[in-house]
Amino acid sequence: MAIQVIGVSGLPLIQKGDDLPALICGRVTLEDGDILTIASSVYSKAKGFTRELSAITPGADAVRIAEKTKEDPRFVQAVLDSSTDILLEYPFILSEVPSGHIGVRAGVDHSNIEDGRVIVLPPDPMAAAAEIRDAIRRIVGKDVRVIITDTCGRSFRRGQTGIAIGWAGMTAINDYRGDTDLFGHVLQITEEAVVDEIAAFANFVMGESHQGVPAVVFRNCKAWKGHDAVYFTPEEDIIRAALAKNKKD
Ligand code: GDP
Ligand code: MN
Ligand code: MN
């Protein structure tokens, strides 16, 4: 069956307290097995994971980093507050957030929100995905899979893509290890990060600016089996180790 991809348009500007799953269900007819992707920006706005810059007093680290990056020190403080580990300060802050995701400026956004406010990533995006999934089941009685996305830069390549920061009803990875290729070779390495592949295409449908399409539905996607250990452990992560070594030198 052909995979169908449906952008959910017609949603309002999301405010704190909005019932996002109900609003989505009002604009698209969901089916069992659908994969519903939601931009983290709108999830965060609905839940109030935003900050008013005027209410932030930057500390010494924020002021020091902001001088290098030429950013608003209050914005830098918001990034530091969202971070559990700073991997790089300049030319941009690269940091880890509580979920294990590593991203530029900790995913703190000042686009698609009023002047003077920033959107921060949901602190527990896995729980966010599970919560949306449960809400959809409650509202329309359908068993959907959910991915919370964010737009992220990549190492080695120019250009941003969508990635998954939280998911429910599926594993992050489709583990092909032990499977055989067309010639009978046993695959030793291949773990496909399916949630990121779907998030990337969702991001393409959403756009990045005024399109107003914060949710995308994928219909007729197969199921897969694997695991959720998508983040390297610090011991496995050679790039992180190299950055840490570079910091010390
Ligand atoms: P992010 O990738 O999660 O940081 O989100 P973006 O800011 O890139 O927005 C992704 C999509 O959602 C774009 O189509 C935006 O126009 C749209 N979007 C963002 N905020 C809202 C909102 O409050 N309401 C609606 N209807 N769309 C929004
Ligand atoms: Mn974002
Ligand atoms: Mn985006």
- Biggest sheet strand order reads 1-12-2-8-9
Unreliable stretches (pLDDT < 50, length at least 5) are none
β-sheet strand percentage? 15-25%
Number of helices: 7
Q: How many distinct folded domains? A: 2
**How would you characterize the largest beta sheet?**
5 strands, mixed
Shape: globular
Question: Which whole number gives the mean pLDDT?
Answer: 97
**Hetero groups bound?**
guanosine-5'-diphosphate, manganese (II) ion
Order of helices and strands: EHEHEHHEEEEHEEEEHEEH
CATH class of the largest domain: Alpha Beta
**What's the CATH architecture of the largest domain?**
2-Layer Sandwich
Class from helix and strand fractions: alpha+beta
| CATH fold category name of the largest domain | 60s Ribosomal Protein L30, Chain: A
Mind telling me the C-alpha Rg?
A: 19 Å
- How far do the termini sit from each other? 55 Å
Per CATH, the superfamily of the largest domain is CofE-like
Strand tally? 13
Roughly how much helix do the residues carry, as a percent range? 25-40%
Structural key phrases:
CofE-like fold, alpha+beta, 60s Ribosomal Protein L30, Chain: A, binds manganese (II) ion, binds guanosine-5'-diphosphate, 13 strands
Tell me briefly what this model is.
This protein is α+β, with helices and mostly antiparallel strands and 249 residues long.
Topology:
Blueprint: E1 4-8, H1 20-25, E2 35-39, H2 40-47, E3 50-52, H3 60-69, H4 73-82, E4 85-88, E5 94-96, E6 102-104, E7 117-119, H5 125-140, E8 145-152, E9 161-168, E10 173-175, E11 191-192, H6 194-206, E12 215-219, E13 226-227, H7 238-248
The protein binds guanosine-5'-diphosphate (GDP) and manganese (II) ion (2 copies).
